[in-house]
Amino acid sequence: MAEDVNYPPFQLGKSRYDQGTFSGRLRHYLDIIDPRTLFVTEVRLKESVKLLEDYKHGTLPPGVSNTQLWEAQKIKQAIIHPDTQEKILMPFRMSGYIPFGTPIVVGLLLPNQTLASTVFWQWLNQSHNACVNYANRNATKPTPVSKFIQGYLGAVTSAVSIAVGLNVLIQKANTFSPSTRLLIQRFVPFPAVVFTQTVLHNGVIFICKTVESSANICNVVLMRHSELAEGIDVLDANGNAVGSSKIAAKRALMETALTRVVLPMPILVLPPLIMSFLEKLPLLQTQRSLVLPVHSLVCLAAFGLALPLAISLFPQMSEVEVSKLEPEIAMATTGRTVVYNKGL
Description:
7% strand; monoatomic ion transmembrane transporter activity; transmembrane helix; Sideroflexin 5b; mitochondrion; 57% helix; Mtc; mainly alpha; globular; 14 helices
């Protein structure tokens, strides 16, 4: 069929693209984060799930194309959690991360922040991150609500503390000119979200205490730390669970945490640099009401660039040799490798 030219033969549970390459993972995740899936109706979702079930049981009606099957799987993967088989709430899906997260990024990067506004935007940011991390976790083991609350409080406290501390230090840095202080203050969200750093300007050293464990890493680890204690299921080539591995859980959290380090870099570094240039243009100098809309568009573009690049660092279903896991895992399967859901 002509419509199937760009689609390979359908494989249930597999990606259309090679997950062993960065470009393949990038194309795969561009499907997953496609915001158009936010508008899929309940009827369309049920039709997609049924089509995949029919394929699985060999009862597919005649005339169904590869295109239809791949599109059905795209819809399911964007909306349904692979472990729980339950719908992920719209703001916490990866396809909703950019539309719902961009207003928060704009708020984080607003200049002339007060203490109250800094606390508010950092709280909102880490609250959204916590829910995204929890909603896209490996859910092969149940997670008590108490663990969610502990992780949430830890992540929010760390981010707000770093941001408030840096804001106070910047306000006291009288050696900086007002314009330099404003530029540095715009970068406060980045260390609060990722790590604090040393800022050099005209020979003046502004020292921000280095914090190895960033707020985003804390968020991932604290929201999912029960996986480290209980392990996660690892699957053989047929998709059957062969055991629970704490080593695989550690790898999953490390891979996810690395994506959270990369994710904020373009989002929180590029907009301040671009806006510091754009705000000098005659148009924005005379039409100050355009600054916030332009700022929002710049943030949206940076977010749209950063998310697929960051999550494409690793495949969602990661593969690991059984020899690198616990001995009981190697004894439970004859395969050389197993796979696990890293989460997003």
